[in-house]
User: What shape does this take?
Amino acid sequence: MYDFDSPIDRRGTDSVKWMAGDSCRSSVWPDVIPMWVADMDFASPPAVALAVRRRAEHPVYGYSMKTEAFCRSYIDWMASRHGVGVERGWLSFSPGIVPAIATAVRALTSPGDGVAIMPPVYHPFRNMVEKNGRTVVEAPLSRSGGRYGIDLGALDAACARSRLLVLCSPHNPVGRAWTRDELEAVFDIAERRDVIVFSDEIHGDLVYEAGRMVPSLALGGGARKRLVAAWAPSKTFNIAGLQASFIVTPDPAIRARFDAASEATGIGSPNCMAQDAVIAAYNEGGPWLDEALLHMRGNYDALAAGLAARVPGVEAYPLEGTYLAWLDFRGVGLEGDVGPEIVERAGLWLDAGVRFGPGGAGFARMNLGCPRRTVETAVDRLAAAFGPGA
Ligand SMILES: Cc1ncc(COP(=O)(O)O)c(C=O)c1O
Assistant: This one.
């Protein structure tokens, strides 16, 4: 029903992904393909574009109030899509998840405190901790047999020195959707070490196998007593530029601390375009998302099959969640920061793994929110640059 394959020219829209920066310049390739920052090259669901157009037609763009319909659309989505009951009173607004991480760090820890993260992980986690004067404590993921996991021993040791854990679920960039057992083990450690968990679930709607996403809000035991869960329609429906996210904190004392820190930043209500867009997305975007997931799963399959057949030295890790493929280039002799070499030799602008911290050297992250043809071209270019006989 929806078109994910016709290319849409995003140049001239101030797109971060498509702006021509130094990192995408190649002396060989005039047309480096941007497959990095995590937004999709697809049109958002038609209902979203309609809602934004309708709102834009009214020429007064003043302050807006957070509406019940806005909150309700998210609550209904969580119930119907994930089978999770969310109470209205648990919700706080944040324009983005990254500002919410910063707010949580300021609200729930003190200067100098440890904040645990599990690298390789989305790089703003580290930045938000360090730029707010706290100390990053690393619990690197484990990797064996072509699969990443949570190193519970390392996590326990990290939590022993931390007040807060910033969890990425599903995990960007390695593509894992954590199982219930894994998440329960994480929350057991958090409880034992008295650590609050900020669970960034921005990719929570982008899990390929039905029922495979386990929202931390669905965990039993005492998980909800130490949880700040962060959700957003931004990745799900490709509306990150509209800046609206939901921070869900069941525990009243933790929520009060988060809200006080949020108020101290002056963050107020959603912008006047965002609410109508979010309501349309959650209420009407489900069929679009189902098709987008099928398309992106197909993109991953095309990439993995193409690499296995034509570039066996580059390994694609399994993709359970997110539309970001995690690729190991060490088998073709690349090490450290692989970004510039991939731009120069293959004309592809990927996110170099080193951005994501320890464990990222020799790796790169490829964004699959694009037409199939883009993935096929990427495989052609990788084969020419790094395939046997290249
Ligand atoms: C794990 C994760 N968290 C947060 C964000 C961005 O959040 P926001 O744009 O809402 O600040 C991203 C974007 O790539 C992400 O991958």
About this structure: The first strand starts at residue 33 and ends at 34. The chain has two domains: 22-45+286-386, 49-284. The radius of gyration is 21 Å. The CA atoms of residues 45 and 288 lie 6 Å apart.
